[in-house]
């Protein structure tokens, strides 16, 4: 094979080799093989000394042509590879900001979900939402609610005392007095919140739970107003017509005081395990506000009357989701809560 033919063959080999190069390392080794100091071109050119002067010139210029052409091709291939590597990295490292990650989506705690719904129902009946502190004075939690110092009913609510003679409120009834002091009658309020009891825990007792206090103060307020509001609330909450009944109940801050039951929704009042075969489910204590409580709130009991109720928010949540142990509610157990996400109402 003449030297010129060998040069041409080398050129062709390099050109096709370049086409197949996939990585910078391959490119580099091909370069060394073809154009490196000890590469094939150098090897071929060793034979140039045996040629005639005319052939030498011709072969020399052809060799230079091929070398500079190949140098350029190698450069181009190198920058091509770089661009491709960059594009690939961008593609792999980029992420789709719109891609849904629903399996980790959060949700409302069932207590919050029910609380918001209760607030909405009462708001639509003209009740405003009130709030009060969780650390309270003895006077707010008991005294102004008509518990005298040695009142036996204080023992009904085992109290968690904190430093300075204060306590963690045992019920949301504390907000009744705060509201009376803040608002001009007539008014209607509901006050959802956490309450605390020093209690042995079991499936139906927890040291922290949730209540919604309700109160309406107006010129003439009777038990029938109370029944109407509670029936309306229960119908909207359970999306079903319910019957209610009152049994006498004792709380120092109401007179008369009642326990309000509603007809069992599971068996329609026929009797089942949920209503302990009575056909009725206890839902909230309530009553007409005691005159002493109105006075403690700065409201003249000869001019104004009121009703009040204490709804067990934790119980409402348990009924909705058929939760049998109250201790699940504040357990923070995500596996437990995941079961409820997305199945509200
Ligand atoms: N505060 C009472 C409790 O937690 C519940 C209660 C009873 C609230 C009667 C009321 C009421 O507003 O009228 O045991």
Low-pLDDT runs: none
Average residue-wise pLDDT: 91
Bound small molecules, which ones?
3,4-dihydroxyphenylalanine
CATH homologous superfamily (4th level) name of the largest domain:
Bira Bifunctional Protein, Domain 2
Tell me the strand order in the biggest sheet: 1-5-6-10-9-8-7
Give a count of the beta strands, DSSP E runs of length 2 or more: 10
Q: Structural class of the helix and strand makeup?
A: alpha+beta
Rg for CA atoms:
43 Å
Order of helices and strands: HHHHHEEHEEHEEHEEEHEHH
Please name the CATH topology of the largest domain. Answer: BirA Bifunctional Protein, domain 2
What is the level 1 CATH name of the largest domain? Alpha Beta
What does the main sheet amount to? 7 strands, mixed
CATH architecture of the largest domain: 2-Layer Sandwich
What is the tally of helical segments? 11
Describe the protein in words.
Helix content is 41%, strand content 18%. By secondary structure, the protein is α+β, with helices and mostly antiparallel strands. Strand 3 (160-161) and strand 4 form a beta hairpin. It binds 3,4-dihydroxyphenylalanine.
Secondary structure layout:
Elements: H1 3-20, H2 24-35, H3 40-45, H4 53-93, H5 110-124, E1 128-129, E2 135-136, H6 138-141, E3 160-161, E4 167-168, H7 174-182, E5 187-196, E6 208-218, H8 223-238, E7 244-248, E8 254-263, E9 280-289, H9 291-296, E10 305-312, H10 313-321, H11 334-338
Helix pairs in contact: 1-2, 1-4, 2-4, 5-10
The chain binds 3,4-dihydroxyphenylalanine (DAH).
